[in-house]
Write a structure and sequence with these properties.
Rossmann fold, disordered C terminus
Length: 401
């Protein structure tokens, strides 16, 4: 099936062609016709599946065909990065007469106020900043006909549900609602149905599914040796572009500082960094000037880069679904990737919960120099990454010269 067969406007077909969109992804094939028909949808789809274009293309088609003035579309996103990514995609796909404004925290109010005064057709926003503008009485949603909630599961994890409910109450009841989520728990489904009318359900990414392009490895390690092992891995393997996940912002700062001291080209991205710092970190990671990007789960939403060679879970995620989301950052666009997880003895039960979710047993490789304890139920593999004491040296700080 081609984009033309989906019934898209010639102008949008031209934009798709110029961006190198050859044929629709599975989520686009399913969602675009339903959105064009005006139906509500609940879609379970990960970042990287083409979901942004899946809702933007039919939305833009409606705006092209409509003569209505005023804000017609609201897209809610959990993080600044994802909002920026959506706004950029909108600029790439939309004709010049369709205006898009972005409302996000960490950026100045003045420029965003000016964008609102120009009467945008589409607003892309994070919930917190949107509520700020609503309280100022600077937004008119009386002509809105489409609401998109992107990565709804993450918005709920971040505590945005009260803000979302408040926003939805101000919107016209007679609207189309498009609900996208990487995971679909019963709680999320209940919330989705409370906002929609007989929605169509689309599931592209099965819950817990991990692509075969990602080779997963677990390294049992003593808690005190985690940083040493991370450094040894980075210095011995030929990593091209590495995403390192930590559980906390403080942890991300600490690891990034250590990496910089060891002369690794690295940066960090988390909620306490300013918008300009986060954009600079992403830009450096994308253009290759930064080799290692240290990130928290929340900040990593919106990182959409096809050439991440490795994902390293310095801290194992507390929520099993987050593991799937993390390692899904590599092994994309037909490229192979590696996912490495550092697991202490006390975290083994969490790793087993992840394995139950994915239906896979992840290979453990014991490196004796780093104090790991091999779980008795899991056998190591002899043919993976330099297994064995001889191939690893103990870490010693470099001397200053």
């Amino acid at each position: 099936m081609s984009f033309k067969e989906l019934g898209l406007h010639p102008m949008l077909l031209s934009r798709c062609e110029s961006l190198g969109f050859v044929e629709p992804t599975p989520i686009q094939k399913q969602a675009i016709p339903i959105v064009l028909e005006g139906e509500d949808i609940i879609a379970c789809a990960e970042t990287g599946t083409g979901k942004t274009a899946a809702f933007l293309l039919p939305i833009l088609q409606k705006l092209i065909e409509s003569k209505q003035k005023g804000t017609a579309v609201l897209v809610l996103a959990p993080t600044r990065e994802l909002a920026n990514q959506t706004e950029l995609a909108c600029r790439d796909l939309a004709p010049k007469n369709i205006k898009c404004a972005i409302l996000i925290g960490g950026a100045g109010y003045r420029s965003q106020e000016n964008a609102l005064r120009r009467g945008p057709d589409i607003i892309v926003a994070t919930p917190g900043r949107l509520v700020d503008f609503m309280e100022r009485g600077e937004i008119d949603f009386s002509r809105l006909h489409t609401l998109v909630l992107d990565e709804a599961d993450r918005m709920l994890d971040m505590g945005f549900l009260p803000a979302i409910k408040r926003i939805v109450k101000t919107l016209p009841v007679d609207r189309q609602t498009l609900f996208f989520s990487a995971t679909m728990s019963s709680e999320i489904e209940k919330i989705a149905y409370s906002m929609m009318i007989e929605p169509e359900f689309i599931e592209v990414t099965k819950r817990g599914k991990v692509t075969d392009l990602v080779h997963q490895t677990v390294y049992p390690v003593a808690a005190a040796s985690k940083t040493v092992l991370l450094l040894d891995l980075l210095e011995r393997e030929k990593f091209e572009r590495v995403l390192v996940f930590t559980r906390t912002k403080r942890g991300a700062d600490k690891i990034a500082h250590i990496l910089e001291k060891r002369l690794h080209k690295s940066n960090r991205i988390h909620g306490d960094r300013s918008q300009s710092q986060r954009e600079a970190a992403l830009r450096g990671f994308k253009n290759g000037s930064t080799r290692v990007l240290v990130a928290t789960d929340v900040a990593a939403r919106g990182i959409d880069i096809d050439s991440v060679s490795h994902v390293i879970n310095y801290d194992i995620p507390e929520v099993p679904e987050d593991y799937v989301h993390r390692i899904g950052r590599t092994g994309r666009a037909g490229n192979k990737g590696r996912a490495i997880t550092l697991v202490t003895a006390g975290e083994e039960h969490t790793m087993r919960a992840i394995e139950r979710l994915t239906g896979q047993t992840v290979e453990r490789v014991l490196l004796p120099d780093f104090g790991g304890v091999m779980p008795s139920v899991v056998k190591p593999s002899a043919n993976n990454f330099s297994a064995g004491k001889k191939s690893f040296r103990s870490f010693r700080p470099r001397r200053r010269r």
